[in-house]
TrEMBL record:
Superkingdom of origin: Eukaryota
Lineage: Eukaryota, Metazoa, Cnidaria, Anthozoa, Hexacorallia
PANTHER family xrefs: GTPASE, IMAP FAMILY MEMBER-RELATED, TRANSLOCASE OF CHLOROPLAST 120, CHLOROPLASTIC-RELATED
Primary location group: membrane
InterPro entries the record matches: G_AIG1, GIMA/IAN/Toc, P-loop_NTPase
Membrane topology, from the record: Single-pass membrane protein
Protein name: AIG1-type G domain-containing protein
Length: 400
């Protein structure tokens, strides 16, 4: 989010100076107000890809709701555009499922007309293709071309390309003989798809700057979230979608999924969730619960500085709340391992993702604020700050 008048970072600032940095004009109060009030209470997602590429499974994972029965296939003999609707935390979400044009019966013009009629506006475009293919399919190329012609090049300004069935990508026998690692083979396949799709987009007239910014992400199974290049594909996919979605829908998208966000315990009560993969290895979804005394002291100092600068009082006053807030818990939004009502699979946000989310919500100024207050000894400062902000966000968002 663009901002003006970003202050230079200073070391050793007093509480009053820090308060001015974070609460001054165009800073936290301004940015948080802009974020909360930037959008309405609806999110529209346009979904495209051939029948059988796992679109329903992917969408259910993204939203934490069963919009369609997994394995659902649109009849390839029709040219329907199917709208799935769900309300989550007061946010109305509509997913428009548009199968690949090559799945139809040659009546592409009629099909494209129906897309234009039914999809008046969308906030996020998900284009799905299976990563198990050795090369990008020509029918997918044709779908991209015709959708771009029908909806315009702006289609790709909020697009995210998802490579499904990434968990089924396996080494070819010839590669095994050449001692190519699984990670290298996976990355090569991923980059090949990325290169082919971007080359095609440029060829059909999409501006290079738009093509450069189109993100790609692999998707696999929920029961075993690990892929060769990452431990948790779902969280990476959700973060990519949040960063890519229309700015006016970011707050609504976050609100709809906020109960699914899980941060690891700050003080480490040994309540982390572990998941046993099919190969017998254990994947730790939270961060390590072993917090050093140095980091624990840094955490206490961080909280003391926030309290001294009247952070909670000023923030709750800014949000015009009449009720009295208890001091926000530092542990998490949904502490991993604790009993809590969670809709859909958890989004496991670590320190790096927390920093990305804060900057996506509020810009760079809060990052300077967090860095200055916490220092280098506190390793989970962004998680702590993100949990704190989100606590207020949930209370202040209109649907609350």
């Amino acid at each position: 989010m663009a901002q003006e008048g970003t202050p230079e970072k200073r070391s050793g600032s007093s509480a009053s100076e820090v308060s001015q940095i974070i609460f001054g004009e165009k800073h936290l109060e301004y940015q948080l107000n802009q974020f909360v009030s930037s959008g309405g209470q609806t999110v529209n997602i346009l979904l495209s890809g051939k029948t059988g590429v796992g679109k329903s499974y992917l969408t259910n994972a993204l939203l934490g709701e069963s919009l369609a029965v997994e394995g659902y296939d649109i009849d390839p003999q029709t040219d329907n555009v199917t709208a799935f609707e769900v309300v989550k935390n007061g946010v109305s979400i509509t997913v428009f499922d548009t199968p690949g044009l090559a799945d139809a019966t040659g009546n592409d013009e009629e099909y494209l007309r129906k897309i234009n009629e039914k999809v008046a506006h969308f906030d996020l475009f998900l284009f799905c293709t299976e990563m198990t293919s050795r090369r990008f399919r020509t029918d997918d190329l044709e779908t991209i071309k015709k959708l771009t012609e029908a909806l315009g090049e702006k289609l790709w300004e909020h697009a995210l390309v998802v490579l499904t069935f990434a968990n089924e990508v396996s080494l070819l026998p010839a590669k095994k003989k050449d001692n190519v690692s699984e990670v290298t083979f996976f990355n090569d396949r991923f980059l090949a798809f990325k290169k082919a799709i971007k080359k095609h987009l440029v060829a059909i007239g999409v501006p290079e700057i738009t093509v450069t910014n189109v993100p790609f992400t692999p998707a696999g199974e929920l029961d075993d979230p690990r892929l060769p290049d990452r431990e948790d594909w779902l969280t990476a996919f959700w973060i990519a979608a949040f960063k890519r979605i229309n700015r006016n829908a970011k707050a609504a998208f976050l609100m709809a999924n906020v109960d699914r966000i899980s941060l690891s315990s700050t003080f480490g009560e040994g309540n982390e969730e572990s998941r046993v993969r099919k190969d017998g290895n254990v994947v730790n979804l939270g961060q390590s619960s072993n917090v050093s005394m140095e980091e624990s002291n840094a955490m206490k100092e961080f909280r003391a500085k926030l309290k001294k600068s009247d952070f909670d009082k000023r923030l709750s006053g800014f949000l015009e709340k009449t009720e009295t807030f208890d001091e926000p818990e530092e542990e998490c939004l949904t502490s991993t391992g604790q009993d809590a009502k969670v809709s859909g699979p958890s989004i496991n946000v670590d320190e790096t993702y927390s920093e990305e989310l804060i900057k996506e919500m509020l810009g760079d100024v809060p990052g300077q604020f967090v860095d200055e207050l916490a220092g280098d000894k506190f390793d989970r400062k962004y998680q702590t700050f993100f949990g704190r902000l989100t606590k207020y966000f949930k209370k202040s968002y209109p649907t609350s």
